[in-house]
Design brief:
The chain is 71% helix and 0% strand. Bound molecules: zinc ion (ZN).
């Protein structure tokens, strides 16, 4: 320590805040290294404590996003809520796209009944797009981080895919009653959507998630296209195919479960 100490006059101007910045900074620097001068600076312990607490709250306590607060409020465990809401901003774009597509499909079907198939065909594809966008190194800023945790891989994929599916099913479910169709037909997209999502999960053990999603979407469009070319688009939404979608959803989910817990 040098023998120089802050003179009273300088300290007073420092405390009043009237020192020019360069001088104030050198007083700061000296205070940082000199206990004697620090002792001469009066301070309010309560004010200091409060200010540390405020700093701590700002820097250490994570700021919860709206979605995270909603999830926690809905009873989702903290760590899952954090993980789900750390999904990339792209999933917000996906959400907006889902709402837009569903609204457009409903409006078109109400305008002209022959547009009804569009809704039923598109609804199972929407969760696939969401799954593809909500997972993977290229779109996920948290990917590096979560890849190093036990939640990496299939479990994380399942968590996010389930969230994506739940959101799509709720949104399409809200839109369905607005369709100009009997309830059974208006909800005919549900089992295909479940089968498609579980197919995507099952394929993801062999293919990158976006490719798996594309492949499953292709299969679904081929099924619909076949029905259309046979002259009856409704056929692929009939009772027998619905049972098929349901069974496929169960088997594919089981397969994904077996592969991911191996
Ligand atoms: Zn000093």
């Amino acid at each position: 320590m040098s023998s120089w100490h802050i003179p009273d006059g300088l300290r007073e101007r420092y405390l009043e805040g009237t020192l020019e910045p360069a001088l104030a900074m050198s007083v700061d620097a000296h205070l940082g290294g000199c206990a004697d001068c620090r002792a001469a600076v009066p301070y309010d312990k309560d004010w200091l404590d409060a200010s540390w607490a405020r700093l701590e709250a700002e820097l250490i306590t994570p700021r919860l996003s709206l979605s995270e607060r909603l999830l926690r409020h809905g009873g989702v465990p903290d760590h899952l809520a954090r993980l789900l809401s750390a999904t990339p901003t792209m999933s917000r774009a996906w959400l907006a796209a889902v709402v837009a597509v569903l609204a457009f499909a409903v409006l078109a079907a109400r305008e002209q009944a022959e547009f009804l198939p569009a809704f039923l065909v598109v609804a199972p594809v929407l969760p696939l797009a969401g799954i593809a966008l909500a997972y993977g190194p290229r779109v996920d800023p948290a990917h590096e981080l979560v890849a190093a945790t036990p939640m990496a891989g299939p479990r994380l994929l399942l968590t996010r895919a389930t969230a994506v599916l739940a959101v799509s099913v709720v949104l399409a479910g809200l839109a369905s009653p607005l369709l100009p169709a009997p309830p059974g037909l208006a909800a005919a997209w549900l089992l295909p959507a479940l089968a498609a999502a579980s197919g995507c999960l099952a394929l993801s053990s062999r293919l990158p998630v976006p490719i798996a999603a594309l492949a499953v979407a292709g299969v679904w469009l081929a099924i619909v296209g076949t029905g259309h070319s046979l002259g009856d688009w409704l056929a692929v939404f009939g009772p027998a195919p619905q049972i098929g979608y349901g069974v496929a959803a169960l088997l594919l989910t089981y397969r994904f479960y077996r592969v991911s817990t191996r």
